[in-house]
């Protein structure tokens, strides 16, 4: 099979498509003939040598795919050869074939093509596990999402609105804020010229802050919270260390959570995927959530895809067509 690996950490030019042995599905696995793979920030961090893979994970890039079932391992039920599916992976998605535990595989939502479907599982599962499950989102609450126009932002705005919430977002340009507003964001904040903590504090605070920055944002995230609010940190773009004022935390009766999705055990991922299917798939199929795809690159052009991702100019998901 064709698959993307790298020989040493660095820029997009380090990525190479190689010929490797086909994977064999083990007990409880399905083999997927990959149509497309989604590109995520963790892929860029892995390329730079700044992301430790979960134990036992392949060094092939890619955390989410769409495709067709090509084989079934022992003890797998509920799938047939040829079924169109999406899957959440620990790694291995930038390839023409991948084996994955069956609990991490879902049918493609009806009305969605295979290429755009590749951008669904990682963002949908991330939002459900962190906003709904860990963050205990309730109808009517306000969610602050840092990064308005990436995959998490464009999907998260629509999900929170569809669930009856209010959304505030941060971004660096007026164009990105306009795109977020068009997707349904209620409050848009240019973090280069505005203090998001002051803006949120002025409107009653956020019940949940979905944080991808960490370090330097910790104090401002806490200030932005409403009483009994929850900070859920899923990324460390700003650094791994910050200062926490426990007096402020206690006065607000607030909580801080740090989570990762990629290194969870398969049984937890299966729970999250089941919850995602039940909650999100109907919203996609009725059009309450639309899939925002920026660009589709050929797998053979993976270096250009990563270079464009690094530029930060994309709005929504970037996809690799693994048939090319």
From TrEMBL:
<keyword id="KW-0560">Oxidoreductase</keyword>
<dbReference type="InterPro" id="IPR011032">
    <property type="entry name" value="GroES-like_sf"/>
</dbReference>
<dbReference type="InterPro" id="IPR036291">
    <property type="entry name" value="NAD(P)-bd_dom_sf"/>
</dbReference>
<dbReference type="InterPro" id="IPR013149">
    <property type="entry name" value="ADH-like_C"/>
</dbReference>
<dbReference type="InterPro" id="IPR013154">
    <property type="entry name" value="ADH-like_N"/>
</dbReference>
<dbReference type="Pfam" id="PF08240">
    <property type="entry name" value="ADH_N"/>
</dbReference>
<feature type="domain" description="Enoyl reductase (ER)">
    <location>
        <begin position="10"/>
        <end position="320"/>
    </location>
</feature>
<dbReference type="InterPro" id="IPR020843">
    <property type="entry name" value="ER"/>
</dbReference>
<protein>
    <submittedName>
        <fullName>NAD(P)H-quinone oxidoreductase</fullName>
    </submittedName>
</protein>
<dbReference type="Pfam" id="PF00107">
    <property type="entry name" value="ADH_zinc_N"/>
</dbReference>
<keyword id="KW-0521">NADP</keyword>
<dbReference type="InterPro" id="IPR014189">
    <property type="entry name" value="Quinone_OxRdtase_PIG3"/>
</dbReference>
């Amino acid at each position: 099979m064709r698959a993307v690996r790298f020989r040493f950490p660095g820029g997009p030019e380090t990525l190479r498509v190689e010929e490797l042995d086909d994977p064999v599905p083990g007990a409880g696995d399905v083999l997927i003939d990959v149509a497309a793979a989604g590109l995520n920030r963790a892929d860029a961090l892995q390329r730079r040598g700044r992301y430790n893979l979960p134990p036992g994970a392949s060094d092939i890039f890619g955390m989410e795919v769409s495709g067709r079932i090509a084989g079934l391992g022992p003890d797998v039920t509920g799938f047939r050869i040829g079924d169109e599916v999406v899957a959440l992976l620990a790694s291995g998605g930038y390839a023409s074939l991948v084996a994955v535990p069956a609990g991490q595989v879902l049918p493609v939502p009806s009305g969605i093509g295979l290429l755009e479907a590749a951008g669904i599982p990682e963002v949908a599962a991330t939002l459900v596990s962190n906003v709904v499950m860990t963050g205990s989102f309730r109808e009517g609450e306000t969610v602050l999402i840092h990064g308005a126009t990436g995959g998490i932002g464009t999907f998260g705005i629509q999900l929170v609105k569809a669930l009856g919430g209010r959304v505030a977002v941060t971004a660096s340009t007026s164009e990105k804020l306009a795109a977020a507003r068009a997707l349904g964001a209620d409050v848009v904040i240019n973090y280069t010229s505005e203090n998001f903590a002051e803006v949120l504090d002025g409107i009653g605070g956020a019940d949940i802050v979905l944080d991808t920055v960490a370090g330097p944002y910790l104090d401002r995230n806490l200030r932005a919270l409403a009483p009994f609010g929850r900070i859920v940190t899923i990324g460390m773009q700003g650094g791994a260390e910050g200062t926490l004022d426990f007096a402020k935390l206690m006065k607000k009766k607030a909580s801080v959570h740090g989570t990762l999705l990629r290194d969870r055990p398969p049984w937890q991922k299966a729970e999250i995927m089941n919850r995602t299917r039940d909650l999100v798939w109907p919203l996609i199929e009725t059009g309450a959530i639309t899939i925002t795809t920026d660009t589709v690159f050929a797998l053979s052009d993976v270096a250009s895809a990563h270079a464009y991702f690094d530029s930060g100019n994309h709005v929504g998901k970037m996809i690799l067509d693994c048939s090319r």
